[in-house]
């Protein structure tokens, strides 16, 4: 067989080197609240440089992220709903849970504040004020961590699911950014994580009206998918990413990520 010209052989070698020099890839399901914060834009390029690893984000609500993990469609998840995370681990769908950072949930609403949330004494009081005045409320309605937190707050305030089927309550069925947009357009109240609110550009007449109740604590955790359930998942890459996320460079980037001088997340990972 006739050998290809030298320049073809050189091109083939160059292509082989380039192909094999590509960064490894990993799929991670992350919450829309994490993505909407803008922090991923800061972290991913540095991860690429440090680990030669391309992290493909699947941006969904916590409920969907957990379902993707159960199905083995991702290698790891980054979510924020402890009860659902514990159930995921109890089913052996994840190997372990590693806390990375936290912020808090906040109540956003129209500056006119018809439900007087700015005078609320607790998260339960804030929910009761919205219900009593039947003020418009935009809910994620998507089984996300934020939606799960919202439903638990309604329950703690003595507001039933039947109460939420009336005209003042609007289930958007979308991510945090889209829900904030709906709230802005409707002049409605909404529960948001602080990071998404700070990074949201279409605030319109909305304002942060209530925060600070300890029940509004919002922890984000990283969970690698269990390779004993799904042998194809990239266990070693998931662990390498985890170690980077709890390392000093991640801590520095997370701790210094601010918008208009306000801190979006507090790093609280414990190193082994």
Structural class: alpha/beta
CATH topology of the largest domain, by name, is D-Maltodextrin-Binding Protein, domain 2
The topology string of helices and strands comes to: HEHHEHEHEHEHEHEHEEHHEEE
Mind describing the biggest β-sheet? 10 strands, mixed
Q: What is the gyration radius calculated from CA atoms?
A: 22 Å
CATH homologous superfamily assignment of the largest domain: Periplasmic binding protein-like II
Number of domains: 2
Low-confidence stretches: 6-20
Strand content: 15-25%
Helix fraction bin: 40-55%
**What is the residue-averaged pLDDT?**
91
Q: What's the CATH class of the largest domain, please?
A: Alpha Beta
**Name of the CATH architecture of the largest domain:** 3-Layer(aba) Sandwich
Distance between the termini: 59 Å
Number of strands: 12
């Amino acid at each position: 067989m006739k050998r290809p010209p030298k320049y073809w052989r050189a091109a083939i070698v160059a292509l082989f080197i380039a192909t094999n020099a590509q960064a490894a890839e990993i799929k991670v399901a992350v919450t829309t609240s994490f993505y909407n914060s803008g922090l991923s834009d800061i972290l991913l390029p540095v991860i690429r440089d440090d680990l030669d690893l391309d992290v493909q984000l699947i941006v969904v609500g916590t409920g969907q992220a957990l379902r993707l993990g159960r199905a083995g469609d991702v290698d790891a998840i980054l979510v924020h709903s402890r009860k659902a995370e514990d159930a995921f681990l109890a089913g052996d769908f994840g190997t372990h849970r590693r806390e990375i950072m936290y912020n808090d949930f906040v109540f956003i609403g129209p500056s006119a504040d018809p439900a007087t949330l700015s005078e609320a004494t607790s998260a339960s009081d804030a929910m009761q004020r919205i219900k009593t005045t039947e003020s418009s409320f935009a809910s994620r309605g998507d089984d996300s961590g934020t939606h799960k937190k919202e439903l638990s707050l309604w329950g703690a305030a003595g507001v039933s699911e039947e109460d939420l089927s009336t005209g003042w309550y609007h289930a958007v069925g979308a991510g945090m950014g889209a829900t904030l947009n709906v709230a802005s357009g409707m002049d409605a109240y909404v529960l948001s994580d602080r990071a998404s609110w700070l990074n949201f550009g279409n605030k319109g007449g909305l304002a942060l009206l209530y925060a600070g109740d300890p029940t509004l604590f919002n922890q984000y955790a990283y969970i690698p998918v269990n390779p004993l359930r799904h042998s194809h998942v990239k266990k070693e890459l998931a662990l390498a990413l985890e170690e980077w996320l709890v390392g000093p460079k991640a801590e520095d980037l997370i701790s210094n990520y601010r918008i208009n001088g306000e801190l979006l997340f507090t790093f609280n990972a414990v190193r082994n």
